[in-house]
Amino acid sequence: MAKPVTLKELSKKEILFASGHRLCAGCGAPIIVKMVLLASDYPLIAANATGCLEVSSCISDYTAWKIPWIHNAFENAAATLSGVETMYRSLKKQGKIDKDIKFIAFGGDGGTYDIGLQSLSGAMERGHDMLYICYDNGAYMNTGIQRSSATPLGADTTTRPAGSVVPGKTEQRKNLTKIMAAHNIPYAAQASPSHWADLVRKVRKALDIPGPKFMNIISPCNRGWRSRTDDAIMLSRLAVETCYWPLYEIENGVTKITFKPREKKPIIDFLKPQGRFKHLFKPDAEDFLKRIQDDIDKEWERLQKEEACFSS
Amino acid sequence: MAKIVAVTGNEAVANALRQVNPDVCAAYPITPQTDMMQRFSGFVSDGKVKTEIILVESEHSSMSACVGASAAGGRVITATSSQGLALMNEILYIASGTRLPIVMPVVNRALSAPLNIHGDHSDAMGARDSGWIQLWSENAQEAYDNTIQAFRIAEHMDIRLPVMICLDGFIISHSIERIEYLEDEQVQNFVGEFKQLYPLLDLAHPVSYGPLILPDYYMEFRKAQAEVNTKVPEVVLDVAADFEKISGRKYGLFETYRLEDAEIGIVILNSAAGTTKDVIDEFRNKGIKAGLLKPRLYRPFPYVETGEALKHLKALCVLDRADSFGSSFSPVYMDIASSLYPYNDKPILINKIYGLGGRDYLPEHAEIVLNELIDIAETGNVKSYKEYIGVRE
User: Fold this and answer.
1) Which residues of B touch A (CB under 8 A)?
2) CB atoms within 10 A of CB A242
3) ipTM for the complex shown
4) pTM for the whole thing?
5) In the CATH scheme, what architecture does the domain A7-311 have?
6) What is the dihedral of CA A101, A102, A107, A113, to 10 degrees?
7) d(CA B296, CA B134)
8) Chain A residues lying within 8 Å of B72, measured CB to CB
9) In total, how many domains does chain B have?
């Protein structure tokens, strides 16, 4: 098991995702990528689904990636990386490679929850030694804030805009972390860039476990969330403290909540700073706000019960 | 020493793949290809190959995994048919645009709807602009030989493009024929060691695959890809010459049959060419100068050589096992017409669609076409430029 790593130690490591990339100021994705790459003690090879991170990090002839990196298409980062990992196993078996290499895929929520779900499910079921990381910003941000199955209830998006009849998204988010855990993979977890030590620890743990691993990391997007450019860490912290984005891990089927807020904050604390929810703060939207709070309370209750099942 | 066997087309190609012994294979079932990858999976399970197999959850993931595995730096195969090839379509362009030498037998089958599992060329025709090299095969022997040659063509340092080997579903994939196998060692020496080019697994030289290229350079990139295609025919001929040395079997860009002094001719792909050759022999016995051209390298299409081989004819029919809806003529017809366009003196060209969805192509169909060509050659009158044959009216 990888040893815990201190901030001081991390600060001395080489950053493998170069600055100068073209992601927006205040975007959560490059913060997450830097943390993930810093966390690893192994040499890494990454695959990337089409999306913000991909189009902004490798515009010919420039690349922000100091590690080998491959982008194929939108829906196939997991399948693509399963090919890379299989060639690695083949060449290693033949004695043509001797290094231990770890494989990480990065996909946004559109490329992971929606169009890439089959490819991801297949790769996890086949047991490839890889870590798939979804940076979940809750919509198709690269194409201009369209609704995805990760978009939260009530959010205003460009394909489900809040109008006089429609109050934004009327469906709950898909619980992808639960779906991935249901593949009985050895490790699935949720993390947030606001809790960097937790995130780094989870990445290090995941990379040490052979086989398929999945991490879902909340990734604030000030363009889509209609928030301030310097609020990414504050908003991801509020997502955790309101239990909108619980930090937990499921290791070999055992659920463990890795951070429990001392005082669970009301969901409006998370919603209010974001313009995508501003229509929910009109007088007639109280019922809808209550529904959002109820959904979160229910899932938080369920998660705690799930954890309790294993701790007794 | 060649070994003579009686095997199906699928078995022959699976054996060629075993002899090549690739590093990675992605496999997914689809009729009529299924049996080929099943046989190859058997070789994996019995340790007859070093290949690591990925049993993907779709053809889209099959081609996606092939792209990843090939970029990683090794020899990669998969195989498909019909809907599977259609599902891969998006990634076919990425494989060729990324210049990855993936080799893929395509057991040709009709496209849905209506659903049909039988022989038809619509699948591979739908991928003809995808930037893949296409080698077409008349019989199991050609499918076997083309598969072995495909690796040398794909991996040639001047080319580095993916290759599909086309063979007719059921008619070839499931029929038992007499064929000659090369020795394993001969095949391995022929294909040689895989040469890596910018492998993703080289940690000392990290590379980024799959960049975004905007209007400032996209067109230059595409032009470079087009230029690579112009080098393919020469490499195909060089590889064929080397292959002849070990097999005694001769391959070109296309096959001509009694064409040199012919006055009327037929252009036809794959298994139907065999039937047509028989009928041409009958017409020759009657003193009628009939001939045939069977394309082998269909993509990139050798326009100049094909036009040269056909220009002297008086009347020519292109028979196609696929249509191109919305255009006036079928896929191969359009290429043949383009190849003849530069010549002032050229044959009158007609187009027939035959054999869709596994409809039998019979000797009488070739007879009807040849008789029509005799009439056109004599009178210059064309009743119909394009027509479906062997179909209920």
Assistant:
1) 23-24, 26, 50-52, 54-58, 60-62, 64-74, 76, 90-91, 94, 200-203, 206-214, 217
2) 21
3) 0.97
4) 0.98
5) 3-Layer(aba) Sandwich (3.40)
6) 140
7) 8
8) 83-84, 87-88, 91
9) 2
